[in-house]
């Protein structure tokens, strides 16, 4: 199943979904990070957007 780039829906504002390319791109732009950095953050803190944002603002990011 491919990504639907014509989709007009906004991503769930509370959950970082890494399954769709368009959602990964959205979240990476939102946090100002690369796709790989986003994947690493979700692996460390889980998919809650609030937790991912805190990760990028915390010293945890610097220790990895």
Write the layout of secondary structure elements.
Blueprint: H1 21-31, H2 35-45, H3 49-57, H4 60-63
Report on this model:
- With 64 residues, the protein is an all-alpha fold.
- It has a domain at 21-63.
- The protein contains four helices and no strands.
- Helix 2 (35-45) packs across helix 3.
- The longest helix is centred in the middle third of the chain and has 11 residues, at 21-31.
Question: Whole-number average pLDDT?
Answer: 84
Helix content: 40-55%
Radius of gyration: 12 Å
Number of strands: 0
The gross shape turns out to be globular
N-end to C-end Cα span: 33 Å
Written as H for each helix and E for each strand, in order along the chain, the element string is HHHH
Query: How many separate helices?
Result: 4
How does the major sheet shape up?
none
pLDDT under 50 segments (min length 5)?
A: none
Strand content: under 5%
Structural class: mainly alpha
């Amino acid at each position: 199943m491919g990504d639907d780039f014509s989709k007009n829906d906004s991503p769930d504002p509370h959950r970082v979904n890494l399954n769709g390319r368009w959602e990964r791109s959205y979240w990476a732009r939102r946090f100002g990070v690369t796709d790989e950095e986003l994947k690493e953050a979700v692996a460390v803190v889980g998919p809650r957007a609030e937790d991912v944002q805190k990760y990028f603002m915390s010293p945890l990011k610097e220790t990895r």
